[in-house]
Amino acid sequence: MPLPSRHLALAAAGAAFCVASWAQSGTDAVRPPAVIPLASEAAPKLIAYPPLAEPLARGVVIIQYRTENARIMPVFGNKAVDVSPRLGHLHVTIDDWNGTWAHTSEDPIIVVGLKPGVHKVRLEIADPSHKILASETVTVTVPEQKAGGSHGH
Fold first, then answer.
1. Any residues with CB less than 8 A from the CB of 68 and at least 6 apart, and which?
2. In sequence order, which residues have a C-beta less than 8 Å from that of residue 46 and are 6 or more positions away?
3. List of residues 6+ apart from 123 with CB closer than 8 A
4. Per-residue pLDDT, 85
5. Cα–Cα distance measured from residue 123 to residue 46, given in angstroms and rounded to the nearest whole number
6. 128: DSSP letter
7. Residue 153 confidence (pLDDT)
8. Cα(125)–Cα(137) distance, rounded to whole angstroms?
9. pLDDT at 53 over 70
10. What is the pLDDT of residue 1?
């Protein structure tokens, strides 16, 4: 009993896929690696932008940033240090506070509750073992808030 034409088409496609897979494996030996060895990667860079003006006028500090040669992810530990492309997270420190928090996404840094005045926000790219690779400091001036906002009280 002859196969319907759609079965022949599927069989032909499967055979073509197998031949293509076999042909690729023969040339993979001469291709460069898909990932650059970590020692050859350029040093990470951190670019921090001034806080957004409109939220800052309301006392909300939003700092956008970007990185080069490092992906910000929630990955920690000595084994992750050797992953390429490079992984890391940010350490965020406000003023001379004796504490730092880890920021593990590419979302902006958001800080609320700072007293009016000048503050320094230090951002550091840290590798998964917390070794500092690059840093930037953003100066923020939180304005005095006007009393009696319209909260419906």
1. 42, 44, 45, 47
2. 65, 66, 67, 90, 123, 124, 125, 134, 135, 136
3. 46, 48, 63, 65, 90, 91, 92, 103, 109, 135, 136, 137, 138
4. 87
5. 8
6. T
7. 42
8. 12
9. yes
10. 53
With 50 as the cut, is the pLDDT of residue 113 above it? yes
* Pick among 3.20.20.30, 3.40.50.720, 3.40.309.10, 2.60.40.10: CATH of 38-142: 2.60.40.10
**94 pairs with which residues across the strands?**
121
Q: Tokens representing 73? A: 């992810």
DSSP state for residue 58 in the 8-state scheme: T
Task: Provide the token pair at 124.
Answer: 């550091």
Q: Tell the residue number behind the tokens 């309301």, with chain if given.
A: 58
pTM (two decimals):
0.70
Q: For the chain, which residues make up each domain, given as ranges?
A: 38-142
Q: What is the DSSP letter of 10?
A: H
Angle CA 142–147–151, to nearest 5: 105
Q: Which range, of 17-21, 51-55, 104-108, averages the lowest pLDDT?
A: 17-21
User: Residue 100 is which amino acid?
Assistant: T
